[in-house]
Amino acid sequence: MFSFKNNGILIVVLDACTGTVLGNKLFSGVDIRHIDGYLKSEIPQRSIILLSTRGDVAIPNNLAEAFMSLGTAKPPYLQSNGSLAFLGFRGNIKPSWIKLSTSPAGHGLVQIEKYIPLQLEEYGCARAIKTRRKDLELLKKAARSH
User: Fold this and answer.
1) Beta strands in 16-116, from DSSP E residues, in sequence order
2) How far apart are CA 65 and CA 76, in angstroms?
3) Which distant-in-sequence residues (6+ apart) come within 8 Å of 135 by Cβ?
4) 58-105 tens-digit pLDDT
């Protein structure tokens, strides 16, 4: 869980193959104008990006273009102020779970609750872990005992 008390844009980056947090960065004040460069060049392949705003944040115009490089189908319309939450992916595919939610200023915070599968071959993970199905193991064990 990451919480931030200052106004700004928080970005958390996860490795899609291991689920480990690769880093987090808070952009506030004048630093916000550098966010698109960070999203386009500082995030490694096979990464899940979680982005959220807090407070009265001026959303940069070029953020919509950066979101396209992280999986949105088209450049989203971003209001200049308000609340924003985004789930994205840096890689060669556009997963179905990519999501962007916005809310105009004064309408409260936006929340995204989404299941994001990890370790998928489609992400380019070297060895995708096969899910261990306890039900099949028990069935095979029961069949052998009869």
Assistant:
1) 21-27, 47-54, 82-90, 99-104
2) 8
3) none
4) 788 788 888 999 999 888 887 767 788 999 999 999 999 999 988 877
Model-level pTM greater than 0.85?
no
Binning pLDDT at 50, 70 and 90, where does residue 18 land?
A: very high
Residue with tokens 């966010």: 35
Q: Compute the Cα dihedral for 74, 80, 84, 90 and give only its sign.
A: positive
Q: In angstroms, what CA-CA distances link 14 with 17, 30, 60, 88, 98?
A: 9, 25, 23, 10, 14
Domain limits, the chain: 8-145
C-beta of residue 5 within 8 angstroms of C-beta of residue 34: no
pLDDT at 129 over 60: no
Contacts 24+ apart (CB under 8 A), 111-117: 111/85, 112/85, 112/86, 112/87, 114/87, 116/48, 116/87
Cα separation, 91 vs 125, in Å, equals 11
Contact 54, 8 (CB under 8 A): yes
